[in-house]
Write a structure and sequence with these properties.
Rossmann fold, alpha/beta, about 25% strand, Dihydrodipicolinate Reductase, domain 2, about 425 residues, 2 domains, 12 helices
Length: about 425
């Protein structure tokens, strides 16, 4: 097996909590060669390097930092990622872990230099950008995965199969909730999570809109989002809370509540759940996922939870570091499964076409990309494009006090206010 190099663009929370640990594990199991991490400045890189948990889990492993570890923290390098990507060998892997509004330029830079891509959700904030990315990547035979990790949750996969087997009926009404911890407000969020850039519905609510689409195959056709503003500690204004209403093509309704306000002292690290109701012949069906509490409760001697609480609902399913048969500790959960699936898919494509002529290679690359698109487990631009339409509609809605925004499909899918002709 030929392994590939990985460059992670962004050194923030998702890199710390998921992306770098998964990359390290894939490195020590032979899938990945060198790992580089590029950030705006040095503090998050130093935090990654000095993490006690990461060092214990992956003894002896490290990454090459850009900028270097010793760079004064006040120095900023907003375009350094371009230099790092430009120096990569072709057809390696770029992992995009930047704020939502910066995904597009980073993804396009990676495609320009012929790199496979894994991007945290949402891929971009405009449908036309998603289609542009899909087209360029397909023409070049490059794989683009989008990190909608809830698709890899076993309960989601069970629900998807059950819906396909018509065990529930037709989806008619649902409610989803994802409230992240209050302490997010004191993180780097306060520098980019501003009203003009994004909001809780776009940032985390998109997970559950994608999940309902993943389970049912129903496309959203109307979005309305109302936000509640607040101030971050640095004085920047952002939407701290958002309530969304999504109507699907069969007139089913999904209500989505999101925010940055789950109490730090509370037992769970966040609040997240999904409930869906279905109409059948003389009866109804239901799916209910309590994602914040999966039956595990720990009470520690000291406060070691995300917010420092002693009693915790410990969810083992998304991401945990656990003992394994090798050295250190192993990342497990549907988060690592999702990240690994996209990275190993890119590696699998390169190994599949090894030794082929240029023409044979491109044809096989494109066949494999379309196979992933059709399977629909790994999110790609082709099978998750409804999310770009939803977030585009959501941004218009929340900036216009919750006005309903229509999604129209056909030859040229687009969004428009309901009041527009």
């Amino acid at each position: 097996m030929n392994s590939l190099d990985v460059v992670i663009i962004g050194g923030g929370m998702i890199t710390f909590d998921l992306l770098l640990p998964v990359a390290y594990h894939l490195q020590r199991t032979g899938y990945i060669n060198d790992i580089k991490v590029c950030a705006l400045d040095s503090p998050p890189l130093n935090a990654l390097k000095n993490s006690k948990e990461i060092r214990e889990a992956f003894p002896g492993q490290s990454f090459e930092p850009f900028p270097p570890f010793g760079e004064p923290e006040e120095n900023k390098f907003p375009d350094l990622y371009r230099e790092v990507i430009a120096k990569m060998k072709p057809r390696q892997i770029v992992v995009v872990a930047m704020p939502d509004q910066l995904h597009y330029p980073v993804v396009m830079e990676a495609l320009k230099h012929n790199q496979h891509i894994l991007c945290v959700k949402p891929l971009v904030l405009k449908y036309e950008q998603a289609i542009e990315i899909e087209k360029i990547a397909y023409e070049k035979g490059l794989f683009v995965g989008v990190e909608y990790h809830k698709r890899f949750d076993r309960r989601s996969l069970m629900a998807k199969r059950g819906y396909e087997l018509k065990q529930f009926g037709e989806f008619v009404m649902g409610e989803a909730k994802l409230i992240e911890p209050y302490y997010y407000r004191s993180s780097n969020f306060q520098n980019w999570f501003t009203c003009d850039k994004t909001d809780p519905f776009v940032y985390i609510g998109c997970h559950y809109v994608d999940l309902v689409y993943f389970i049912t195959g129903l496309r959203p056709v109307e979005v309305s989002v109302t936000g509640i503003k607040g101030k971050f500690p640095n004085g920047n204004e952002g939407y701290m809370w958002a309530n969304g209403r999504v109507r699907f093509e069969n007139n089913a309704i999904l209500s989505v509540i999101d925010g940055l306000g789950y109490p730090d002292a509370a037992a769970g690290s966040n609040e997240q759940n999904l409930q869906m109701f279905f109409e059948g012949d003389g009866k109804t069906g239901m799916i209910k996922h309590n994602d914040q509490n999966r039956g595990v409760e720990h009470s520690y001697l000291e406060g070691i939870g995300c917010g420092g609480s002693q009693f915790n609902f410990v969810s083992p399913d998304f991401y945990r570091i656990v003992p394994w048969e090798g050295e250190g500790y192993k990342p497990v959960g549907y988060g690592p499964d999702s990240v690994s699936a996209s990275i190993t898919m890119a590696i699998g494509i390169e190994n599949e076409v090894d030794g082929m002529t240029a023409g044979e290679s491109l044809k096989r690359r494109q066949e494999m990309i379309r196979e992933v698109d059709k399977k629909g487990i790994i999110a790609t631009p082709a099978n998750s494009f409804i999310n770009e339409l939803v977030v585009e509609a959501a941004r218009i809605s929340i900036l216009n006090d919750g006005d309903a925004v229509i999604i129209e499909y056909g030859d040229k899918p687009h969004v428009k206010k309901r009041s527009e002709k």
